[in-house]
Amino acid sequence: MFAFEKLAEQRIQEARRKGEFDNLALEGKPLVFEDDGNVPEDLRLAYKILKNADCLPPEVEIKKEIRRTEELLAAMPETSERYKTIKKLNALVLRYNMLRGGRRVDLDLPEMYEHKLVERFSRETGNAGDR
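^ that's the sequence the OP posted. Answer follows.
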């Protein structure tokens, strides 16, 4: 490891002599550190590498897709397409919760059955009144 450190230091000094560190875009500005307090310590390095490679962990990708689907659903009128979108959302939530594995259940995302239940109860109540 010592040889690697020595080589790195030599290259840094050489670049400094050549002026490669002069007039950098962020020169003189404070470093901005990311808040990774919510990421488990054993996953921080892996997540950092994935982020630098412009890759997101599967949980994050699915969560982003869940948010997009929820936004789409909020703007959607009552149609059969809305029902299909709710089914898609439930599948995404299930996939997300499965990926989380043995982690705390109270952090799982709830599935979107509320709309379906309200619709069914509304129909049953309306039908009961017609009898």
